[in-house]
Amino acid sequence: MIRFTKMQGIGNDFVMVDTLTNPLPDLDLADLARRTNDRKFGIGADGLILLESGETAPFRMRMFNPDGSESEMCGNGIRCFAQLLKDHGHLQDESVDVETGAGTLHLEFTDSGLVRVDMGKARLTRGEIGMLGSESQRFEEQPIETMVGVFPGTAVSMGNPHLVLFVPDAESIPLAAVGPELEHHPLFPKRTNVHFIQVLDRKTLIQKTWERGAGITLACGTGACASAVAAALTGRSDRYVEMQLPGGSLWIDYQEDGTVIMTGPAKTVFEGEFHF
Prior knowledge:
This protein is an alpha+beta fold. It folds into 2 domains: 2-118 and 265-274, Diaminopimelate Epimerase, Chain A, domain 1 (Roll); 123-257, Diaminopimelate Epimerase, Chain A, domain 1, CATH 3.10.310.10. The chain is 17% helix and 42% strand. It has helices at 29-37, 75-87, 126-129, 175-183, 221-233; strands at 2-9, 12-18, 48-53, 59-64, 70-71, 95-100, 103-109, 115-121, 142-146, 149-157, 161-166, 193-201, 204-211, 215-217, 240-245, 248-254, 259-264, 267-274. It has an 18-stranded mixed beta sheet that branches.
């Protein structure tokens, strides 16, 4: 039996397990992720997130996709992680550093109860992103051919890889068909997250996402960061934007030094026990 907390950040939902309070038995974590994330035979979620003790920070977040693969980072998940720390009495104040597969991140709560995350600097070269080609080159405003047309694409890493495509109408993109095609694009040996972005104005963008290892999700926090960076780099938007996702909005500040700040909500849905 495993005690868990079900949480969501603008519709991106997670099975959260506090291993400090309830240590896990010796398990195959990939199998556990597949079983808990299953929406028919398990709890149902876009990811399994473990709260652990850190080595370089007080706490460590590990995130597993529904297919069992482990992700380096999860933007909506890290905000839920912060809320779980607070709810379970692990925090001494309103801010904390958390170790992730993408490095140590600083999180803090705003006066309005939102979670602000310093996501670190966007990685822009092919080598940092994990793309084929010259490691020192960027991939910006390059034509990407899909089954529904050719769109300008820009690649960004926020500790995990993202391919951002700008389209006239994000709602018209058949994500279920195009998403898998681009997730496995030959430029990305370890696969990639895929985002279709429609620019409403210089401060507002619409995002539709296909996540690596998860499929269509209502939100992707690292993807919102990567998309805001791509929009600013290519002159489509200001550096501070509202990203409108199917599950709600995130506010992204791409600062002059390359640091990305993400702000958004995190909510507890319910708690329970998973019997396996």
